[in-house]
Design a protein that fits this description.
Elements (H helix, E strand, L loop, with lengths): L6 E9 L4 E10 L2 E6 L6 H8 L7 E6 L2 E2 L4 H6 L1 E4 L11 H11 L5 H10 L15 H14 L4 E5 L7 H17 L3 E5 L10 E4 L8
Parallel strand pairs: 3-8, 3-9, 6-7, 7-8
Antiparallel strand pairs: 1-2, 1-4, 4-5
Helix pairs in contact: 4-5
């Protein structure tokens, strides 16, 4: 991965059936760790999903290193990853099958790093368990172990500290700080807790024009 990933959000609009969230949002994100802040309901999770290509803009554009999230959708998704807090997707799979499905998309993933992260989070032994049977903490650790092993340019992490034990929080903070310092990825993280690692930048949606 090269240095200095760039994310360009231009004139972004997004609307749910019952309300509008963004209209004319402009953002520039760069390498390191950006702490995304804002009151509940301001659109933090929606913005992360838009940045990860899980949602499509109603208008405007999102570009990662020049790739458009809509017109270059597959290439864009291979350079980004959204790690959220929702209930398990594909919950009929085992944890190992869930990992392998994602590793097939991210062919340059570091499998050795994944094994280290699974060990560090103390979930190396859950591979045969159905994803639907994992606790919230186990599923979050599974997602995070994968996310930290992917060579993506844009890593989106939604409230990662919720449901984690103290030891897992320590592991995650060390890995996020290390990755942010390398400068090969843009990490956007939401957390209602104060960060113990210094963010490269802070983005407050409460003060951002274009947020409805």
């Amino acid at each position: 991965m090269g240095l200095n990933p760039t994310v360009d959000v231009g004139n972004l609009g997004f609307h749910f059936a019952t309300r509008s969230v963004f209209l004319g949002l402009h953002l520039q994100l760069g390498p390191g760790l950006t702490w995304l802040r804002g009151r509940n309901g301001r659109g933090k999770t929606t913005l992360l999903k838009l940045l990860g290509g899980a949602l499509a803009p109603s208008r405007g554009h999102i570009r990662l290193d020049g790739l458009d999230s809509v017109t270059d959708a597959l290439a864009f998704r291979r350079l980004s990853f959204y790690c959220g807090g929702e209930a398990p997707a594909l919950d009929w799979l085992t944890a190992r099958e869930w990992l392998e499905l994602h590793l097939a998309l991210y062919v340059d993933a570091d499998r050795d790093a994944l094994s280290r992260h699974l060990d560090a989070f103390h979930i190396a032994d859950i591979g045969a368990q159905p994803v639907s049977g994992l606790s919230l903490g186990q599923y979050k650790k599974l997602q995070l172990a994968l996310a930290l092993a992917l060579p993506v340019r844009l890593l989106l992490v939604d409230e990662p500290f919720n449901g984690l034990d103290v030891q897992a929080v320590d592991v995650l903070e060390v890995e996020l700080a290390r990755r942010a310092a390398v400068g090969t990825s843009c990490i956007v993280l939401t957390s209602h807790l104060d960060l113990r690692i210094a963010p490269t930048a802070t983005l407050d949606l409460d003060a951002q024009p274009g947020v409805l």
